[in-house]
Design a protein that fits this description.
The complex is a heterodimer of chains A (520) and B (427). Helix content of chain A is 31%, strand content 13%. Chain A contains 14 helices and 13 strands. With 427 residues, chain B is α+β, with helices and mostly antiparallel strands. Chain B has a nine-stranded mixed sheet with strand order 2-6-7-10-1-11-12-13-14. In chain B, strands 5-4-15 form a three-stranded antiparallel sheet, with no helix packed on it. Chain B has a two-stranded antiparallel sheet with strand order 3-16. The chains are: A alpha/beta (520), B alpha+beta (427). Strand 2 of chain A pairs antiparallel with strand 9 of chain B.
Chain lengths: 520, 427
């Protein structure tokens, strides 16, 4: 395989991106270095391993009867409402038989910064109590996914989860900042500027659901929605000292949540206590006929198992882990041991390959999901994608292109199977796994932005649960000596949210980390 | 080495389900005002998700079974990626490695078997129009058709002439109509044909090039288009030139194909399983239950009529081809006598809306006759649409002939004009 500018130009064409010569050079170099890291997957023998493309407990045949759904239909006016150009009831695209002019983005009007942490993108209702990540479609309320591509876009419909939250009495207060499309671990990839961490405004609050975490810790809202594709709820929870749930894949409907990587995207919730998360989650989880991957058939078989044994995965406590975080998590385990839980070391041998597999699967899916943004029906054209979105589209288009998909995408899907099997074995020995989310405490804004790979590695401990579709509850467990928040995650088998809540609540009864607030 | 004509067919058929392949919008998109039949799913809005239509899956399976295919017990929907304004998501949900049905065949009158490579299910695209507005060339897009269920039937390259292709297509259409899964109306685009043509050593040893003809909207055009293309390619090959790999259009006026798009390399569609849709897993019992629902297929029906009522084969075939006529025959054959009735029907001397009478007295224009004339004179209709409006007189004459002069020619002309104003011309 030779990654050179010719190949990268071909990939850009396949991904329908117009890149400058400088970008071609940059992506050639970056794709090379990311692929070099991904080569580590070749150390794993995956012969006779079946690839995993979805984590649905073998759910099959989710279909609908052939009945009209007029309630979901759009009028011509609604359909055309978000298009830049229309003509007599039609959408207008560039003439397909003519050479179209090269697209270049013009700078959008600068957004007014609303709050001092740049957590809020759109104010909706000052009396509201719900914060909504801007990846959730909200009818007639601007929804940007943190990207200039969707700046100004007002969706014609609302996400199922938002409708459910409104039904149980929540009112949207603000739409919240995030890494564009969910691509990022720090919040710095927002096209509308980074969100700042209230504990230290020179540091990142974690991403991609950066604004959601900040809105909760500053008590602007009671609860906020987020999404976690590979740590995007858990990392900001830990970095801002709040609680976040990445549910079992499929527990909360993805309908109306702008897709990043469909087989990994988990909509979830932020709150200041586990008790609050538990109450809200139990009211909004459930099958959504609009999302065929929601609530697999195994859901009904889940039982609320009392946790007795807690496992610490050996591979998560290696040199890569910051020593302060390591000590605080071990202290948390000790605390629970004193309460009568058994603590045991377990092994998740393939977890080290999680990030490499993740950075093939997620870009492949995002390269596909971002194909719809052509500026014809809504939003701006593809020249408005930011650097990280372009990088991931390029990587994903490459990994799924002819001649490479078996080597990359399929290989990664097999690694995913092995990671699922690791957990399966571990959960025969323990009821839950206690682990760090981030290898380092909140870092400085700008510190990692020059090196994408280094940023990707911030999610190394988040990746395994994401790839396996497992629920993970992130909760605070202490502070570094510089008074930066540190948290941990409790990972359980699929559909074990009730058990995770029970353990989390118990921990929060004997500790008060989650009650600590930043000086605003 | 002797070369022979090698022709394969790709046929797209719109299913007449009530709703879309992955959404609850009406599948009946024809003739509606633009962009009045959409929802977040078929418009490809951010965050929308597809949910497959059970009826469409069953019908695709029945098409496969009727074409003697093997049904895959495990199938997936896959994403096929390319960029075009009529494709709202940047990918089409289709099937790749594991389509619903594979390896079937359809037998021609001669006994020759045309092998079927696959029968799979996918979603239709939007409709485009290309216009100059205020001096600027634009493409206008109407998403009403986006997401309508399409069955794609792909043959092996076993066909060797335009006439064989036409026979295959007619037989296929008869089967699809008897299954009642599609109206196969070429005018409305609910059946679309794409032959690919080359001169090769054999079906298993194909030439390095192949030429695809697109937008053929009648069987007759398919036949003449294929024959023209074979002649054109042969002439080139005889001069030692190799035809280029390309997509060609068909001009019915000139009865010629013309170059549309050169294909430099085979496209890279980056297929992968659609993560939004769980796999479809079928039991052998499920498939057998569908098989038992298959109606008597046309061939069996024809031989039944010949055997039971002593009709001649061509009369029986004409009856079977049109379900309405066949139903009429079955209803009244005892009263009138099968042979007499069959002849009356076949010679169009009977009004199917009434019980059999020897002379029709109705003066209303039967829209079926208008349909029939439009369908049987596709070449004339094409001329009309190409701007030669004087041919309308010929079509009026045809209607008068079929109605035995019992209707008012002026209203016939009006009716015809109304029907021929098809707004969505595809380029």
């Amino acid at each position: 395989m030779k990654v050179d500018t010719t190949l990268v130009k071909h990939i850009a064409k396949l991904g329908n991106l117009t890149l400058s010569e400088a970008e071609i050079k940059l992506y050639t170099r970056q794709i090379k270095s990311i692929l070099a890291y991904i080569e580590t997957l070749n150390k794993v023998d995956t012969a006779n391993i079946k690839p995993t493309y979805q984590t649905l407990d073998k759910t099959t045949n989710v279909w609908r009867e052939d009945k009209l759904q007029p309630e979901r239909g759009l009028t011509q006016k609604q359909a055309l409402s978000q298009a830049k150009k229309t003509y007599q009831g039609y959408f207008v695209a560039d003439h397909v038989f003519s050479q179209s002019a090269k697209k270049t983005s013009t700078k959008l009007d600068k957004r007014r910064q609303i709050d001092k942490y740049n957590a809020i993108l759109t104010e909706v209702n000052s009396r509201g109590n719900l914060g909504v990540k801007d990846l959730f479609c909200t009818k007639n309320i601007e929804t940007t996914a943190g990207s200039a591509v969707l700046s100004g876009y007002k969706p014609q419909y609302s996400a199922t989860l938002i409708e459910k939250l409104e039904k149980i009495g929540f009112r949207i207060k603000n739409k919240l900042n995030q890494d564009a499309w969910g691509h990022g671990s720090s919040g710095e990839n927002s096209d509308f500027g980074p969100t700042k961490n209230p504990w230290d405004t020179t540091r990142v609050p974690g991403g991609s659901s950066s604004g959601s975490a900040v809105a909760v810790v500053t008590q602007d809202v009671e609860v906020a929605t987020g999404t976690d594709t590979c740590g995007s709820i858990r990392l900001p929870s830990n970095y801002t000292n709040i609680c976040g749930l990445k549910p079992t894949y499929g527990a909360l409907s993805r309908y109306g949540v702008i897709a990043f990587a469909s087989s990994l995207d988990c909509p979830g919730l932020f709150a200041r206590s586990v008790a609050k998360l538990k109450t809200v989650f139990s009211q909004v989880a459930g099958f959504d006929p609009k999302d065929p991957t929601s609530q697999s058939q195994a859901r009904n078989k889940a039982e609320n198992k009392k946790i007795r044994t807690i496992g610490l995965p050996r591979e998560f406590f290696t040199q890569g882990l910051n020593s302060e975080i390591k000590n605080l998590i071990q202290a948390a385990a000790k605390r629970l041991e004193k309460k009568g839980y058994w603590i045991k070391t377990v092994s998740l041998p393939h977890s080290a390959y999680g990030i490499a597999a993740y950075y093939l699967i997620a870009p492949t899916e995002t390269g596909s999901n971002l194909g719809r943004y052509d500026g014809v029906r809504y939003g701006q054209d593809r020249s408005y994608f930011g650097a990280e979105a372009k990088r991931r589209i390029m990587l994903g288009v490459f990994a799924s292109s002819a001649g490479y998909s078996a080597k990359y995408y399929t290989k990664a899907a097999k690694i995913r199977t092995l990671i699922i099997q690791d957990f399966y074995r571990a959960f025969k020995q323990v009821d839950v796994i206690l682990a760090p989310v981030a290898p380092m405490p909140p870092f400085k804004i700008g510190e990692k932005s020059a090196n994408p790979l280094e940023m990707y590695l911030a999610d190394i401990y988040a990746a395994p649960a994401s790839l396996a579709g497992l629920p993970s509850l992130a909760i605070p467990c202490g502070f570094t000596k510089n008074k930066l928040p540190v948290g941990m995650q409790l990972v359980g088998p699929r559909w074990s949210e009730p058990s995770l809540f029970e353990l989390g609540e118990e921990y929060q009864k004997i500790t008060d980390w989650h009650l600590q607030k930043p000086k605003l | 080495m002797k070369l022979q004509p090698v022709i394969g067919l790709e046929i797209h058929v719109e299913l007449k389900t009530k709703t879309g392949m992955f959404c609850g919008c009406s599948a009946d998109h024809f003739g509606k005002a633009p962009n009045t039949n959409t929802c977040p799913v078929c418009l490809g809005l951010p965050g929308a998700l597809p949910v497959p239509n059970h009826q469409a899956i069953d019908w695709a399976l029945m098409v496969g079974l009727a074409l003697n295919c093997r049904v895959n017990l495990e199938s997936t929907f896959d994403r096929k990626h390319y960029f075009y304004p009529d494709l709202p998501k940047g990918y089409q949900i289709s099937q790749y490695d594991d389509p619903f049905c594979q390896q079937g065949f359809l037998t021609l009158e001669s006994g020759k078997k045309i092998r079927i490579n696959r029968v799979h299910l996918e979603e239709d695209t939007a409709k485009m129009q290309h216009k100059t507005v205020d001096g600027k060339k634009l493409t206008l897009v109407d998403f009403n058709r986006s997401g309508v269920p399409l069955v794609e039937i792909v043959t092996e390259p076993d066909i060797s002439s335009g006439a064989e292709a036409k026979e295959f297509l007619k037989k296929l259409r008869d089967i699809l109509r008897s299954l009642a899964v599609s109206d196969c109306d070429m005018e409305k685009g609910s059946m679309r044909l794409e032959p690919n043509i080359s001169w090769s050593r054999s079906a298993s040893d194909l030439a390095d090039y192949k030429v695809e003809i697109k937008n053929l909207n009648s069987f007759k055009f398919a036949q003449t288009g294929i024959d023209y293309e074979l002649k054109r390619q042969k002439a080139m090959l005889d001069q030692g030139k190799i035809p280029v790999q390309e997509t060609r259009g068909y001009n019915p006026k000139l009865r010629q194909t013309f170059s549309q798009r050169i294909k430099e390399t085979s496209a890279d569609y980056r297929y992968f399983p659609d993560p939004d849709i769980p796999p479809i897993v079928l039991s052998p019992e499920y498939i057998e239950a569908l098989r038992s629902k298959l109606p008597k297929l046309p061939e069996a029906e024809v031989s039944g009529l010949v055997k039971d009522f002593h009709l001649n084969i061509s009369t029986a075939q004409l009856l079977v081809k049109e379900p309405l006529k066949l139903a009429y025959f079955n209803k009244y054959s005892k009263e009138v006598g099968p042979k007499t009735l069959a002849n009356l029907i076949v010679n169009k001397k009977i009004n199917l809306d009434q019980p059999p009478q020897l002379k029709t007295t109705s003066r209303a224009i039967d829209s079926k006759i208008i349909d029939q004339v439009i369908k049987e004179n596709a070449d004339i209709v094409a001329k009309y649409k190409a701007g030669k409006t004087s041919v309308i007189g010929f079509l009026v004459g045809q209607v008068m002939k079929l109605t035995h002069g019992q209707v008012d020619p002026k209203s016939v002309q009006q009716e015809l004009l109304k029907r021929l104003q098809v707004p969505n011309l595809k380029f």
